[in-house]
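[Meeting: bench + compute handoff]

Bench side (C.D.) handed over the final construct sequence. Compute side (W.E.) agreed to return the predicted structure before the next meeting so the bench team could plan truncations. Sequence as handed over:
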Amino acid sequence: MVFTTLAMPSQADSNLEFGLGGLVISFPHYPGSQEQNTLAVPLPYFSYQDDNLVLNRNGLIGTIFHYENWYLDLSLSGGIPVDSDDSEIRYGMPDLDWTFEVGPQLHYYSLGKHGDSSFLRNSVYLRSVTATDLSYLDSVGWRAGIGVELVTDFPLDGSYSLTWTNSVTVNWADSEYLNYFYSVPDLYATETRDSFYSQSGYSSAEFTSSLTFSYEKTRLSCFLRYRNYAGTAAFDSPIMQRNSDFIFSISLVQILGGVSWNN
């Protein structure tokens, strides 16, 4: 995976960390699925940060430019594939492949500033979505949204630290994206799965909360994302099985090493 940031090199310190840990995560097969996966997996840890580029568990973000409290980023994220034969409602339909999203997001810091341990910021994003099984690339539409994020760092004694992050995001998507997940072409319609095609429009509302406790080189994190689909453009699809779903994870990471340098 290659990412190029459009920002000019800065003179700030660069920080690189790596480590190893474990992750327990529960997530739906796809957004709106009533089938839930729960996995326990080893977790390689890698993070990099400087003034222009951040790479961590949230994805890859590169700063294009900033002016006072305004920051424009270019971000990259993705989603995992779904084998339709493992999903009762999608059985016999085409699989959902890996998806990758890339696009700009504009932030305005209402409290604090970029790089602070505590801040409040408002954001708007636009991303192009591409699907692949690693043998092809296919554009599957666009996503957009607006949100607000509050990050609070609680001062603790000694080597302890506690960070609480909360955000609310409202999302929209075009018909191509919504139909990639939720359409039922006539060819795949059955007695219990009516044909369906979605229009562009509102796609979900999300509330995300995470809590990270750090002690020296050990980090314990809890993550929760709740998504609600009531009133969405694809809500009447038979593939949309629930009004809401959630992603929950707990991870424990031991930092094994790291390095900092000045550019």
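W.E. noted at the follow-up: The longest strand covers residues 244-262. C.D. will use this when planning the next construct.
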